[in-house]
Amino acid sequence: MKGFRFSSGFGPRLKISEKDRYDFHLGMDLVPLYDDKVYAVYNGTVYAVYLEGDPKNPYPNGGNVVVLKHTLPTPFSLYGKNWTAVYSVYMHLSELSLSPRDVGKKVVKGDVIGKSGSSGTTLLNHLHFETRVATTCSAPYQQRHPQKRCSAIFGAFRNPHVNPLYFLDYLDTNSYALNISSCGSDACFSVSGSKREWDFDCFTAFMCNGEQKRVCYKGFEGIDQLNVDNNDLGWVVIEPYRIAKQSNKWAVRWRVKSPLSAIRAVAVSDINGFSLNETLSSC
Ligand SMILES: [Zn+2]
Prior knowledge:
By secondary structure, the protein is mostly beta strands. The chain folds into two domains: 36-166, Glucose Permease (Domain IIA) (Distorted Sandwich); 177-279, Immunoglobulin-like. It is 4% helix and 46% strand. The protein contains two helices and 20 strands. The strands form four sheets. Strands 1, 4, 5, 6, 7, 8, 9, 10, 11 and 12 form a ten-stranded antiparallel sheet that branches. The chain has a four-stranded antiparallel sheet with strand order 13-14-18-17, with no helix packed on it. The N and C termini lie far apart (50 Å). Bound molecules: zinc ion (ZN). The site of zinc ion has 5 residues, from loops.
């Protein structure tokens, strides 16, 4: 897509349309600004084309879906494995430039694969874009199909989704802000960043008792992958922030179920390794 705005990034998301329900968004949403055309992000091959209503469509909410397979110039490390290919998944398309007969054909970066739309379960014209190291074997799929031995691929009850920004060019401005406060008897950390840059990856709390607690999206460290929409991770609650629609920022609040005095430091980091550290207490 050429002219677009991001309406949701990869990670925790507040669904205002669903009475502020929280979910964990496994892709990015791009809303077209003046052109609905959807382009292949990389050279690759057509892996699958699913039409809305196809009972074999493994993405029943995705409407018309295209999946491309790309060989990576350098292997991508996830779950202790080096992945040499990644799949890009395009959902909610209104028009397809490819058909199921095109499976196996080559695509070149920039080829039009269709137009964004609102097929599947969405009302808004947008492209839901995912990148995955596998097209199946998500944690819920593994639970439904225990006989498929998916765990041999990348481990039991893990998700193949990766933040698309790992594979795309974008302006990395490191424009994060971290706000620290007490919230009742807990400690609250609000992280915000630019809506042009959804590359947030990890939140780490260094506790006074020596423990190091982490939540990371790449590989979903610290997150129950069978239930990624659960915002209560035991020691921390993820609270996606409601911010003004016209704001050019996203924000997420991490409520650590410990007082500020029990936390020596916190760090937030992005997928490129940029890290913002804040020392809180000398314990
Ligand atoms: Zn989406």
